[in-house]
Amino acid sequence: MESRYGFLDTVRIAVRTLVQVVVGGVALATIVAVALILGPVIAADLYTPPVAAWWTVFTAVVVQGVPFLLLGTLVSAAIGAFVPERVFSRLLPRRTALAVPVAGAAGVVLPGCECASVPVARSLMRRGVAPAAALAFLLSAPAINPVVLVATSIAFPGRPLMVAARLVASLATAVVMGWLWARFGREEWLRLPTERMRPPGTSRGRAFAAGLQHDFLHAGGFLVLGSAAAATFNITVPRSVLDLFTGSLWLSVLLLALLAVALCVCSEADAFVAASLSGFSPMAQLAFMVVGPMVDLKLIALQAGTFGRAFTIRFSSATWVVAMVSSVLVGWWLL
Fold first, then answer.
1. What 3 state SS string does 286-326 have?
2. Which of 121, 120, 139 has its CA nearest to residue 130?
3. How confident is the model over 215-232, as pLDDT tens digits?
4. Cα atoms in the 13 Å half-sphere on the side-chain side of 188
5. Is pLDDT of 160 > 50?
6. Distance (Å, whole) CA 173 – CA 322
7. Mean pLDDT calculated for residue range 125-130
């Protein structure tokens, strides 16, 4: 009888969670639709075209990020509720130096953007995975997953070396950053997430629902802040300033590496943006695609809210430099 009641309780919780996700998704879609319709109308009524442009960019970034943020929090909550710690100890090598490239290569299995990788990396750390390995996964997952690589091949038809260059440069950046954190990172810089202990008698289903709600609401707020910062950049920097850099190879690489941080394009779509920048060199286009999934304004905001500002300032700055250097070296080699 006890096992029967336990099964029925699990079914009720699963159904309740599914209903909440569906209702929440419908509500979110409704809010976004109303915002997309009323936002430009309100802006037009105020006779401020820059406000309308800001609202368009802001909603585009949020709409791009929310589905993958939800995917990431679903995976994060599932890991925290259903996956025992011993699973990770068996899958990853004990030595951090070996665990980092394994975790980086494992990024190929998560079909999401950078919004999904932060809550998953947070959950991995909660489950005892070494921070260096979790951070390598955080950087590689949005950059080398199959969806991104297929999108890159479509955006650059007949140029398989561009796909290979993105894969090699992105994986190299993730592994190098993992090793750098293992060697030079300090515990006080990283606000390590603590495992939320389930109260006695709490089922795994309830723990999953609570983790999903906590992670999604927590990360969603910082996604909104990062999207607002990206929209502000888009409407304040004139196009003429960007055109000044297309004549120089090194300045164009530097510009697109900075532009990737500001535009916050989802990793599934950034290849099409890079391909549209036809006035820039292939090396600069590669830098845009390698830097973007690892360092952008919304990701910086998500990392700051999850791991703390001290960590984010150091880690994001170092990642940007390593990603740009990796893009130059791999681009010179393959492109």
1. HHHHHHCCCCCHHHHHHHHHHHCHHHHHHHHHHHHHHHHHH
2. 121
3. 566 556 656 665 676 677
4. 0
5. yes
6. 6
7. 82
50 half-sphere exposure, CB direction, 13 A CA radius: 7
Angle at 285 between CA 291 and CA 325, to 5 degrees: 50
**Tens digits of residue pLDDT in 76-113:** 567 656 666 566 667 788 888 999 999 899 888 765 56
pLDDT value at 310 more than 70: yes
Q: Which amino acid is at 150?
A: V
Exposed (0-12), middle (13-18) or buried (19+): which is 77, by Cβ within 10 Å?
buried
**Which of 176, 185, 109 has the alpha carbon at shortest distance from 324?**
176
Distance, in Å, from the CA atom of 74 to the CA atom of 216, rounded to the nearest integer, reads 9
DSSP string, 155-178: HSTT-HHHHHHHHHHHHHHHHHHH
Which residues contact residue 285 at a Cβ distance below 8 angstroms, ignoring those fewer than 6 apart? 162, 256, 274, 275, 277
Using alpha carbons, select from 308, 299, 295, 300 the residue that is nearest to residue 115.
299
Residue with tokens 């990360």: 219
Closest CA relative to residue 256, chosen from 302, 318, 304, 323: 323
According to the model, what pLDDT value does residue 226 have?
58
Residue 66 Cα distances to 20, 52, 197, 249, 301, angstroms: 16, 21, 27, 35, 14
pLDDT digits (tens, 9 = 90+) for 33-65: 666 565 565 555 555 677 777 777 777 767 766
Tokens read off for 209:
């629902």
The amino acid sitting at 111 is: P
Give the HSE-up count for residue 255: Cα atoms under 13 Å, Cβ half-sphere.
21
Nearest to 222 by CA among 14, 64, 62, 335: 62
